[in-house]
Fold this protein.
Amino acid sequence: MRSIIDILDLSPAEIEELIATAMDIIENPAKYAEVCRGKKLATLFFEPSTRTRMSFEAAMYELGGNVISMAGAATSSASKGESVADTAKVISCYADIIAMRHPKEGAALVAANNASVPVINAGDGGHCHPTQTLADLLTIYREKGRFTDLTIGFCGDLKFGRTVHSLINAMSRYPGVKFVLISPEELKVPSYVKKDVLQKKGIPYVQTTDLEGAMPDLDILYMTRVQKERFFNEEDYLRLKDSYILTPDKLKNAKLDMNILHPLPRVNEISVKVDEDPRACYFKQVLNGKYMRMALMRKLLKEAGTI
Ligand code: CP
């Protein structure tokens, strides 16, 4: 049974196929409105979410299916000590596909190894968030028309930001991609991402603390929130939370066609005044996420022989 835990579980050809499906869904939504008739998605969210859970649910409804939902660990039997493995076996009795978010790295893989239906990782701790990456990729495709020859700046919490790790992995597979990693010293990209992805594949990258200095080179600026929930003490969070705040003034040396992405939620790291800038793409990303989740669930359910 095929599950998607990491963005690298999908080949570049499969990502192209998902993008083609998403674009067709955008053009011809009625063609997909009955694809999952009678099928059920279970959303198991052991951590808070607005976009990911609701876009998975909207995606399944728009495919003609139904949703059963666990919107928090506190109201489930996880609070009584039930394991992720047992939960996955149980939910497989009720649903045709599972989307799961969990605060522990590796939890989605445990679920996939125990479920008898496909499991999609909707975020596991600071590790991966592959469907956010699919949303990011469709946004880049729609804005830039290519994945090659791009200089991508990641700014903010590059240590705990799982969306950053997933997008670095995904974009490292395309030629001509360079990364500019902009963060405070304490929130740099983890060494395993540098060693296992960037250095191993010989991808050019620079690390800096200077957002405005990096700005003129960037084709894409991917802003991130400092991940309060992953800090061990509040004092460090308070010291680092406003390290970068993107304002219209800081964009004055940016390329006119640079795209500003952010997985959201935003706290303080992008001024609301930037929302009016045509380069701001973060609300387009939200919508793109729904289309890519539709395309992904359709693909996995077809491969499983469920539809
Ligand atoms: N981008 C994202 O994962 O948002 P949520 O935490 O609201 O799902």
Notes: The pocket of phosphoric acid mono(formamide)ester is lined by residues 49-52, 123, 132, 263-265 (CB under 6 Å).
